[in-house]
Amino acid sequence: MTLTCSAVRCLLAVIVLCAGLRTGQADDDTIAPQGDRLAVDDNSTVRVFIFAGQSNMVGSDSKVQDIKRFPPFARLEAPQESVRFSYCLGRENKTTSDGWVDLQPVNNVVGPELSFAREVTRNIDAPIAIIKVAAGGTHLGGDWNPDEPSGFMMYPLALQRVRDALADLDRQGVKYRLEGFMWHQGENDMFNPDYMASYGKNLANFLARWRRDLKAPELRFYIGELCTKTIWGMDLRPRMYAISLGQMEVARNDPLAEYVPTSHVGVEIGGGVGLHYHYGTLGQLEHGVNYATAYLRNIGKLKSQPRPLKQWPYAAGSTVKLFVLAGHRNMEGERAFVQELMKLDGGQRLLKDNHQIAYRYSIGGGYKVSDGWEPLGPAGFYDTFGPELSFGAALQDAGIADVAIAKFTHSGSQIIDWTPEGSVAESRNLYPAFLAFVRESITDLERKGHTVELAGVFYHVGENDMSWGPFRKDASQRLMSLVTQSRKDLKLPTLTWYVSQQQPTDDERVNGIDVTAALEETLAADDHVVHLKVFDLPPQEKKLVIDTRGIVWLGATIARKYLEKPQSQ
Question: In which domain, by residue range, is 556 found?
Fold first, then answer.
């Protein structure tokens, strides 16, 4: 909420100041309310944030030395001397700070607090401090239970750590206020039927007890979504969905709680089939940005970067060729960074907004949505981009005029989420939103006076689906369900789908399922599906994900395949 200078606000400011706000405590022994509730946006009061949860809050399977591999987050391995940090991490063998220290990685692990702090301090002038208590494999129903803590007794441990850290600020005469509580936990509760069924109730109680025990009734909570891109998001889909329902219920009913999407962030690429349980280095850094974005939006400090078209690029009454790009992590561009693009041959051209091609998008499952039509250019949420840049350039170079591109992606999805039938995890079903997005793109162009030629849907097959046996087995059937129903609903029976497929995972655990042959056979039976086996990508470091050079190559390749197909249909 953006604060105003109305008479009411000014009056509240006088009341707060006259109440005797000295250090962190007001005269009634209540910790000062958080920033978006205060009438005075002073820049001397330290904003204190609490980070808590289990392994994906700790930063498990991340490595400080890998930060340099991700250009948007360069130099986050260094201490942030302007940010106070107090921590207690781990279960049996805990690592703790001796009071307040400079914010820095602990135990060679990357936590979300590193990128969170940098993002927040870039956008506000006030100092911040972070208190972090996290341990992998802990339950809300047990370890974090405020009423009957068990196991590693995380709730009383965390409460004492927070109280001690705040008391230390009081002793130093530092003025502070509790600003937000970042919570990421839930995976372990899904293994206990009682904890899973009670997660929403337990979480509501958890929030209420923190506010009561800290005497901070307006403390705002940011509840991180569980990552559906991990293997648990596939093989334990119903259980993770049950936890998410509890989290969303709390966020819906508590005006000071917000559900923060995180399922679209990067995930560590493991050995074998490549799937993993943890975000890893890139995901942790993006995880922190998500929390910062939510916080900055709440206090009215989130900076927008409008990308309007200089002028509408198509002549009145002309026919516009609309290309729809769709898919998962590589169509989104999970590991394609603008900082690396500028070093590639031709990269400088792709970095510039192309005002001759109108572009609209919904990426990350709706995490970022364009403001209508924008110029084609880098628009990812972490300095990332997808194949659309080189795709559009290749079409333009071939003389294809009046091109518009609409992109709909969710890197945390699997093919089942795109099917009309969906899955038990109803909130993850994408088909209705995808269909609405395509229809809206067509309708908006028609509203502007154009005839629209839907040139095709360019769908990059789900990478995770290629790596887990049950989903690999059903990939072709699910894909054709999407293709067939989309034609019916759009009333375009000959709509061409261009299905690109990278080399599937080569591992003995899944090689018994020849997914390429299955796709080839199924798609070949449809005269209006083009199967693009993009198996000659530039050498890639990791399974599943395609790097900057590869994403540029992918976009140009699928454009070339379109240009090679006779366009008489």
Answer: 319-564
Residue 327 falls within a domain, yes or no? yes
CB 384 within 8 A of CB 431: no
CA 115 and chain centroid, separation: 14
Same domain for 293 and 326, yes or no, is no
Q: Which amino acid is at 533?
A: K
Are residues 105 and 165 located together in one domain of the fold?
A: yes
Note the Cα 470 to chain centre separation in Å: 25
The verdict on residue 92 lying in a domain is yes
CA distance 341 to 364: 21
Give the three-class secondary structure for 539: coil
220 and 270 in a single domain? The answer is yes
| Structure-token match 């679209």, residue found | 264
User: Which bin fits 427, alpha (ψ -120 to 50), beta or left (φ > 0)?
Assistant: alpha
Ramachandran angles phi, psi of 47, nearest 5°: -90, 120
Number of domains in the chain: 2
Same domain, 77 and 160: yes
Query: Would you put residue 540 in left (φ > 0), alpha (ψ -120 to 50) or beta?
Result: beta
Distance (Å, rounded) from C-alpha 226 to C-alpha 412? 10
The domain spanning residue 238 has which CATH number?
3.40.50.1110
- pLDDT tens, per residue, the chain with 569 residues: 333 333 333 333 333 333 332 234 333 344 444 444 443 468 999 999 999 999 999 999 999 999 999 999 999 999 999 999 999 999 999 999 999 999 999 999 999 999 999 999 999 999 999 999 999 999 999 999 999 999 999 999 999 999 999 999 999 999 999 999 999 999 999 999 999 999 999 999 999 999 999 999 999 999 999 999 999 999 999 999 999 999 999 999 999 999 999 999 999 998 899 999 999 999 999 999 999 999 999 999 999 889 999 999 999 999 999 999 999 999 999 999 999 999 999 999 999 999 999 999 999 999 999 999 999 999 999 999 999 999 999 999 999 999 999 999 999 999 999 999 999 999 999 999 999 999 999 999 999 999 999 999 999 999 999 999 999 999 999 999 999 999 999 999 999 999 999 999 999 999 999 999 999 999 999 999 999 999 999 999 999 999 999 999 999 999 999 999 876 54
- Examine residue 158 and state whether it is found in any structural domain, yes or no: yes
What 3-state class would DSSP assign to 289? helix
One-letter-per-residue 3-state SS of 445-512: HHHCCCEEEEEEEEEECCCHHHCCHHHHHHHHHHHHHHHHHHHHHHCCCCCCEEEEECCCCCCCCCCC
CA angle 35, 38, 44 (to 5 degrees): 65
